[in-house]
Specification:
Helix content is 15%, strand content 43%. The protein contains five helices and 38 strands. Strands 4, 5, 7, 8 and 9 form a five-stranded antiparallel beta sheet that branches. Strands 13, 14, 16, 17 and 18 form a five-stranded antiparallel beta sheet that branches.
Length: 500
């Protein structure tokens, strides 16, 4: 039995099997058989058996039987070795199914070919392109991560052709990553409005639960569950830092803290007064200590060159003073009384100090008190009472009857025996205005004379809004004479409309 064409048999070609035999008389019939399993089945009669397009499915053992009237003879079986390129190229992974991030995975390329596959080449799909990454039947990824989530394929080649497998995506399992909090509406939220916080994350499989926390002091308090957390009627009390936790069966991860930007009108308005202690010393001052007059040095109220009073009440009417010290000795500053009445933005300034928010009338009234009396405690209290009355009433200092009522209250403290005399006085607007101007002129003259004895002086300014929210610039002149007597007086107040 012979084949035509002789030699190798390639899939898809035409192949003819010929049965030849010596016989006398000549062969009268030829019969063809193929072996399927353990049985031979008859498939053809005739000296030639032809395959038009031979395929790998024809790879059986064939034999023929030759017969004449004297008998029959059967040939040896011939197996057809059909050559073909790779087919059924497939990719398998070990382990199969989902692969937990951080584990190892091996991809194997399998194929059917004759002769066997000579080379395997691996590719991964990045965007719209395939990039070659490896050669060999197996491709192993150690410590696989979500960044390895490409589509992979292999190419099997022998001398007849090359064939690609289908793309195989890797199902990489991992816990939540890149957990973030977003807010709606975005940015600032008006107090009283509503806000929804949304937690988002990447995970495979998807996130199963979300948990919300708010930062209170040094602790995180759990406040809710679910992907969204809504706050109705938001208020400044909700100004915490918020974060969420995303979880699936492979782990949990937290977002960064997200603060809420709650917009609201001014609240808890208060006045802050800062006292500054200054001294000339050589070597320089080592420390500054603040005291409240009347409480002694056993109970200092603050340390440092400045002392800020953020909540001023009537109890602060006792003057404050500072003590300076270096390696040679110490010295004291004269007491400075400071008080503010926190009602309808009322503010008052004491002798030798200034507390923001005073109208010019307040300062003139205090100066008038100082020129008529000594610096005893009752006079200081009287000055604050007048300042309070003027600031609360918001009335000009030229109203004589109002000015008289202030003077009577002063008399109750400093000269009750003169109260009736003042009550009988008639103060017209012009009289009051003229008197205030005379006092102001007198005070300026006194200050001008005293400043001639100054051996050192400077200028100081302070700015604060008055009760109408108009900025006022107060100008002071501190100085010291040859007897080391310290003087600090106000020169003037200038309104700064439209200026801060």
């Amino acid at each position: 039995m012979v084949t035509r064409p002789p030699g190798e048999i390639f899939e898809g070609r035409s192949v003819t099997l010929t049965c030849s035999c010596d016989a006398n008389p000549p062969v009268v019939s030829y019969t063809w058989f193929k072996r399927s399993g353990i049985e031979d089945s008859q498939i053809w009669t005739g000296q030639n058996y032809t395959f038009e397009h031979i395929s790998v499915g024809d790879s059986y053992k064939y034999k023929c039987r030759a017969s004449n009237r004297l008998g029959s003879a059967i040939s040896e079986s011939m197996r057809l070795d059909i050559l073909y390129g790779p087919r059924r190229v497939e990719v398998f992974s070990r382990p199969s199914g989902g692969i937990l991030e951080g584990r190892s995975v091996t991809l194997t390329c399998s194929s059917d070919a004759n002769p066997p596959v000579e080379s395997y080449t691996w590719f991964k799909r990045s965007g719209t392109e395939d990039s070659q990454i490896w050669t060999g039947q197996n491709y192993t990824i150690e410590y696989i991560s979500v960044e390895d989530s490409y589509k992979y394929k292999c190419r099997a080649s022998n001398r007849h052709r090359s064939v690609f497998s289908e793309y195989t995506p890797l199902d990489i399992l991992y816990g939540p990553k890149r957990v973030q909090v977003s807010s709606k509406p975005f940015g600032g939220i008006m107090e009283g409005g509503s806000m929804t916080l949304t937690c988002s994350s990447e995970a495979n499989p998807s996130v199963k639960s979300y948990t919300w926390f708010k930062r209170s002091g040094e602790e995180d308090l759990e406040i809710g569950t679910g992907q969204n957390y809504a706050i109705e009627h938001i208020s400044v009390e909700d100004s915490y830092k918020y974060k969420c936790r995303a979880s699936n069966q492979h782990g949990s991860a937290f977002s960064e803290y997200t603060p809420l930007n709650i917009l609201y009108s001014p609240k808890n308005t208060s006045v802050t007064v800062t006292l500054t202690c200054k001294a000339h010393a050589n070597p320089p001052v080592m420390d500054y200590t603040w005291y409240k007059e009347g409480e002694g040095e056993s109970e200092p109220v603050a340390y440092g060159q400045t002392y800020s009073i953020t909540s001023i009440t009537k109890e602060d009417i006792e003057p404050f003073y500072c003590k300076t010290r270096n390696s040679i000795g110490h010295d004291y500053a004269r007491p400075v009384p400071v008080t503010c009445i926190s009602k309808a933005q009322v503010a008052a300034a004491g002798i030798g100090g200034f507390c923001g928010g005073l109208a010019t009338a307040v300062l003139f009234t205090i100066l008038w008190i100082r020129t008529g009396f000594t610096r005893a405690k009752s006079q200081r209290e009287a000055g604050f009472i007048v300042a309070k009355e003027v600031a609360q009433a918001a009335r000009p200092f030229t109203e004589g009857e109002f000015l008289k009522s202030c003077r009577i209250k002063v008399c109750d403290l400093v000269c009750p025996d003169k109260k009736q005399v003042l009550a009988n006085l008639s103060l017209s607007r012009n009289t009051a205005a003229d008197r205030v101007c005379e006092m102001a002129t007198d005070l300026r003259t006194q200050l001008s004379e005293r400043s001639k004895d100054f051996t050192a002086d400077s200028l100081a300014v302070d700015e604060s809004p008055d009760t109408t929210d108009t900025a006022q610039l107060a100008i002071f002149i501190p100085g010291v004479d040859s007897n080391l007597r310290v003087t600090e007086e106000i020169l003037d107040i200038k309104s700064m409309h439209g200026t801060t």
